Amino acid sequence: MRQLLRGGGLNQKAFINAHNFKTLNDLLEQVIAIDKDENLFKQMLSQPVFADPTFVPKKQAEMLAFLDNIFSQTPKQANRRKNEYFFKNYDFDYKLMTSLLQTRERFAKTLLIRILKKLKIIKLIKKIFPFKP
Fold it and tell me: Is the pLDDT higher at 97 or at 90?
């Protein structure tokens, strides 16, 4: 694909490739020349886009084979995104984090925390152990 984007595989007569010019002025002169000459413009438009005339049918066949491979499988076989191990761990971590946050919220509402805040011990603890979620 990268080669195609740089002009490889494309018919060089079908478009103006800026890489073929040393300066922007040279490129501009070519654009002006094509704009002024109607025959040159029509000749350029009549050229096939791809150098290989079988490029489009090949890509269509590849795409059809790719889609056929996907849709000819059962949904269970086609599903490749769900890694069982990952989701088990993700689920466990999510539940653990939720539990820890709930415990933290409950603890923040206790009498002990209110007393520690009043005595400004909480500020001292936050200075020593900065926590940024």
Answer: 97
Token pair for 97: 């984090």
Specify the 3-state DSSP secondary structure of 50. Answer: strand
Distance CA 116, CA 126 (A): 12
Is the pTM of the predicted complex or chain greater than 0.90?
Answer: no
Question: How many CB atoms are closer than 10 A to CB 43?
Answer: 13
Per-residue pLDDT tens over the stretch 19-34: 889 999 999 999 999 9
pLDDT at 51: 84
Q: How far apart are CA 105 and CA 6, in angstroms?
A: 57
SS3 content of the chain, % helix, strand, coil (to 5): 70, 0, 30
Contact between 24 and 13 under an 8 Å Cβ cutoff? The reply is no
Please give the C-alpha separations between residue 104 and each of 58, 84, 110, in angstroms, as whole numbers: 60, 30, 10
123-130: long-range contacts (C-beta < 8 A, 24 or more apart)? Answer: none
